[in-house]
């Protein structure tokens, strides 16, 4: 199990990373859905079905059995679809995002659903939402001809009113590790079509994570890099990412030891597939902490064993970086 | 009606002889945008230098060939593939991943000098440089490059993917380019 105190910052960070795109940011988030599906299938967490409804049903069962909600009801009548979700873990996050005027949905069930919907060529508009006082979320959607990525496919015509119903914090609650693994894999793969610059997106996710941890879990990061990373490691380890995370900082390196590391299945799969981006919540947030101290991570090198992992991050001080235009210019002229 | 991206590029750069362009790319359509822009430059100038900091040479050539762009008309400067030392052949030079700004400049300069006659330069992308470098250093680098492009008589584009306002260099670079195109 892993606490929502660790998973929710990732979801929040992902949504915040695409805030600047407005409703179009949903298309970026939905790109993670394919990765979640690939991971779930590869681990046998759910089965593929050629029938999109059955496939979605298999996926939803997986999320519910791992504690991301207690029940989902799906009704379709003609072109109208009604969905109700009980004890939906995303609800407090949705409220937080709505308070920032963000309608992006980074819920793992939703982005996976969107991914299946898109691959089946189905487009739905969001008509209305409602949240009851006991926390049941309902949404009415309409199947429409046309293309996705319109405002109406992301922002409901009549959004839920959270002013009367504030969902209680669930950060101390836990969900099954398979949800975390699938989400983390989707995050690492979703933007790789951008090549190396996808790291900027993950760095933005890390910044959003820090914001969430400060605001919702009251995590205080000091001015000292090692202290901040210690605070972060203690926080994510106590939330279930690993049994222990030990950090050592030197002027040009940050070394991290993870004991009984629950990101390991994802990391091993990514490394085996030759993927270089890491979506471990500690490393995402740690890179943001490091950057905020005026350093950049140049290289990340992993060593993995059966249950543990070691990470060496090579850092460079941005303040010390020099680029002498005149000197380089004259060398270029001779090249 | 909003013009299609290839038309938008042509419209924006109409009347410019050897445009030096700063291109802001929508991350949602990054791949298509790169192909559209490259097609525009190849249509005007048959040979060019493609500086890739995002995807390895081997991956790019395959993708371009698939998109109907003759990668043989390009010389690639690869700043992403891990190589123990600088590698070079007639079609590409691999500088190694995380190449520093000074060596990147020198690598670009060498690549440009390999092509005789008219050529263009394509840098993909400034955004990647912002991962490992201070934004001020990246701005200086880009400024120097645009200056050299004018001296070499080379048209071309510096790409940046819109994704992080804090590390944005667009406002600093816009005055040194003929146009800022958003696609």
Plain-language structure description:
The complex is a heterodimer of chains A (335) and B (183). Helices cover 43% and strands 21% of the residues of chain A. Chain A has 335 residues and is α+β, with helices and mostly antiparallel strands. Chain A has two domains: 2-153, Trafficking protein particle complex subunit 3 (Muramoyl-pentapeptide Carboxypeptidase, domain 2), CATH 3.30.1380.20; 219-317, Threonyl-tRNA Synthetase, Chain A, domain 2, CATH 3.30.980. In chain A, a hairpin with a 4-residue loop joins strand 9 (295-304) and strand 10. In chain A, helix 6 (177-189) runs parallel beside helix 9 (264-272). Chain A is globular. Chain B is of the alpha/beta class and 183 residues long. Helix content of chain B is 42%, strand content 20%. Chain B is built from seven helices and eight strands; from the N terminus they run αβαβαβββαβααβαβ. Chain B has an eight-stranded mixed sheet with strand order 4-5-3-2-6-7-1-8, with helices on both faces. In chain B, a hairpin with a 3-residue loop joins strand 4 and strand 5 (92-94). In chain B, helix 1 packs across helix 2 (30-44) and helix 4 (101-114) packs parallel to helix 6. Chain B is globular. In chain B, 50% of the residues are buried. The mean pLDDT of chain B is 90. The interface between A and B is large, with 36 and 40 residues.
Fraction of residues in H or I helices of chain A? 40-55%
Total strands of chain B: the figure is: 8
Shape of chain B: globular
**CATH evolutionary superfamily of the largest domain in chain A:** Trafficking protein particle complex subunit 3
Number of alpha- plus pi-helical segments of chain B:
7
Quick one: how many beta strands of chain A? Answer: 10
What is the CATH superfamily classification of chain B? P-loop containing nucleotide triphosphate hydrolases
Radius of gyration of chain A: 21 Å
Uncertain segments of chain B: none
Query: What is the name of the CATH architecture of the largest domain in chain A?
Result: 2-Layer Sandwich
| Name of the CATH first level of chain B | Alpha Beta
Strand content of chain B: 15-25%
